Amino acid sequence: MDYSRPTPEEFLSKIKANEPKSKGKLKIFFGACAGVGKTFSMLAAAQQKLNDQIDVMIGIVEAHGRIETIKQSEGIPSLPLKEHLRQNITLYEFDLDAALKRDPAIILIDELAHSNVPGSRHPKRWQDVLELLEHGIDVYTTLNVQHLDSLNDIVAQITGVKVRETIPDNIFDEADEIVLVDIPSEVILERLSEGKVYLGELTKKKAAQNFFKIENLVALREIALRRVAEQVEAEKDLYVRFLKKGKKGNISQILVCIGPGESAAKLIRVAKQYAVRSKATWTVLYVESKEHHYLSKDEMLIIEKNIHQAQLLGANTMVIPSLDIAHAIINFAKEKNIGIILIGKSTRYLSHSLFYHSMAKKILESGESLDVYVIHLENERKLEKKHYMPKIQNYFKAFFVLFSVTMLSYALRPVLALENVIMFYLMAIIYIAVTTETIIALISVFVALIVHNYLFVPPYYRIDLFRELNSYSAQTSLTLFVFILVSLLVGVQTNKLRIQNQLIHTRAKYNAELYAFTQKLLTAKGKTKIVNITTEHIGHLFNVVVLIWEGDENGHLQLLSHKDTLLDPKEESAAIWCYENNHEAGKDSDTIPSARGYYWPLSIGDRAVGTLGIIAKDPNREFDQEEKRELLALVTQATLAFERVKSSEKAEIFSSEYDN
Fold first, then answer.
1. Are residues 58 and 183 in the same domain?
2. Which helix (H) or strand (E) holds 282?
3. Residue 60 and residue 164 in one domain
């Protein structure tokens, strides 16, 4: 009898050990402002769990010297803080890695909206909390109402204080439990005067005079109560919908149309509040019109920042190219069955206001069943535009064409009627508009008019446009008017066609590159070949260094490309975190954003098989949204190829073991 064979209990324990932990639960102690007792209440709840023999640990608690808070924390194990040396000053922060290693059942993380020390893995503490939750650790945390992103503007208007540290509303909305910690406003003022509300000695008096006014505290309490009530109502509404599933129509949807301005961030926050109140799903749409190609670098960054903010707030986001913004919005709303559209309007610039009024009017007059809400936005500073300068050779081309037509017409002047000369110039203007830029075509119209008046209208060699009109018959004057009008229209329309052609060319190039890359991977045999194809193709296309890691059986990463490259520890940390958490990291992400490289997991499903990173050869190189989308598509194809090779390797191993 084989006594070494595992028992059923041992099998079961091994299975449970290999099962991934379920996601942790988030409990937020929520208050109107500092001083209501959020931290104290959190510690009291932790003490109760500790009495129930549950593994509770303090990750970080900001007691600020308050005796009651310190006493309430006694007996709860505390995790040592991590030291950060910055500008010869030692700063202490929550140690995320130590918490993950310790793996308590519940961990206390005070001040959810806190910003971490620069150089930390995550810029914000709420991002540390999300990672703890992903690893199955329950989190107790605290939050003030002014730190909710969608309420930031409202609180600033009431108190006159703009809070910079905020968290995305979806974290609050998706919390498993919200505990409202509330005390009367008069009690808060008493606690402030007694020094029980930590504000720092230098700011205490100023805070009492500004933020901590009785009318402000009353308003903040009302906002906090309303926000918690809205979340409860939203949960109740979801439950009712679950019970009535299949008996009602589509859930209401909201479309938010943003532009490149800074005020779009406020429109997104307003839309979030509207979506919460109406229990609706919402989508943020940005249309890449012809003006998009003339935006400055700062405006491009603002667009990306606003789209990222919308994603954090829980919105679906979409970027589509179109020359007609209103038409694109209408078609998108019809396709997605959206009935409500939110559009922002700033009053600073008349042209800007007229544009949005016109766009709202177009949408309303489309005949579709759409409700359009125009949201008044604060005046924003006008960013410097990136002016497009036509190529100098196009000026010479236009000059040569006009000169040739003028010489030909002048030679035939004795036998040509004025109408025929006008037609010659019209053909020249059309050619210039088709082959050059709009501004050159418009300049050419003016030059052609002057030259025509000077050389072809008697008495010759004098410029008098009014005399030219008087010398023409009614038919000739009409021809001249048509000449000018058609020339202008041709110039404008040709410019639109050129931009549309550029968009089509960009899409076609993108599809061609993706197709070529896919074809190469399909014919590749072996892991080494796939690595070489991926590094060469992406590296040449974007002028970057492509790094590919593969995870082994023990969960460690092995670098497969550019093995002789000396990487900064920060880059390696980003790659490892990306692999272990199956989430992007590095530059422009929420994890190790100070890294130079961008890192994506090579994964299909819940588990990554490796990491792909790119580091631009030019340190100042920035990737726009379009390039990132293309990169992500290429990474997906590379992942499929890796999965195919790994499946083949496993099949070969299984086949050889079976044969033996």
1. yes
2. strand 281-288
3. yes
What letter does residue 412 receive in the DSSP assignment?
T
**pLDDT tens readout for residues 583-627:** 888 888 888 888 888 998 888 666 788 899 999 888 888 787 777
- Is the separation of the CB atoms in 592 and 573 below 8 Å? yes
Judging by DSSP bridges, how do beta strands 56-60 and 26-31 pair with one another?
Answer: unpaired
Confidence of residue 202 (pLDDT cuts 50, 70, 90): very low
Instruction: For residues 241 and 251, give the distance between their C-alpha atoms in angstroms, rounded to a whole number.
Output: 9
Collapsing DSSP to helix, strand or coil, 403 comes out as helix
pLDDT at 8 over 80: no
Peptide bond into 459 cis (omega under 30): yes
**462 and 569 together in one domain:** no
CA–CA distance, 465 with 451 (Å, rounded to integer): 11
Beta strands in 129-250 (DSSP E): 138-144, 177-180
CATH number where 579 lies:
3.30.450.40
Residue for token pair 């998108």: 332
Average pLDDT over residues 89-114: 90
Least confident of 146-160, 221-235, 539-553: 221-235
Same domain? 217 vs 353:
no
Look at 84 and 282; give whichever has higher pLDDT: 282
* Domain co-membership, 211 together with 350: no
Quote the CA–CA distance of 545 and 615 in Å, as a whole number: 5
Q: Which of 243, 276, 308 is the last residue of a domain?
A: 243
Residue pointed to by tokens 């009492």: 208
Sign of the dihedral defined by the CA atoms of residues 501, 506, 509, 514, in that order: negative
39 located within any domain: yes
78 & 214 share domain? yes
- In-domain check, residue 291: yes
Q: Say if residue 335 is in the same domain as residue 474.
A: no
Helix, strand or coil for residue 303? helix
Parent domain of 405: 392-496
Map residue 323 onto helix, strand or coil: coil
Q: Tokens in use for 180?
A: 């409202």
Domain boundary among 460, 476, 496: 496
pLDDT bucket at 566, cuts 50 / 70 / 90: confident
Task: Give CA torsion, residues 412, 413, 418, 421, to 10 deg.
Answer: 40
Q: What's the CA gap between 612 and 503, in Å, rounded?
A: 28
Residue 7 is assigned to a structural domain of this protein: no
What are the DSSP calls for 386-397, one per residue? ------HHHHHH
CB 595 within 8 A of CB 571: yes
Which of 172-186, 248-262, 357-371, 455-469 is predicted most confidently? 172-186
User: Which strand (E) or helix (H) includes residue 585?
Assistant: strand 585-586
Are 576 and 650 members of one domain? yes
> Which one is predicted more confidently, 417 or 495?
417
The band of 650, judged by pLDDT with boundaries at 50, 70 and 90, is low
**Does the residue 6 lie in any domain?**
no
Say how far apart CA 531 and CA 521 lie, in whole Å: 10
CB 514 within 8 A of CB 640: no
Lowest mean per-residue pLDDT among 225-239, 267-281, 326-340, 359-373: 225-239
- Structural domains of the chain, count: 4
Q: What is the mean pLDDT of residues 513-531?
A: 83
pLDDT at residue 300, as a whole number: 78
The beta strand positions in 99-252, using DSSP E, are: 106-109, 138-144, 177-180
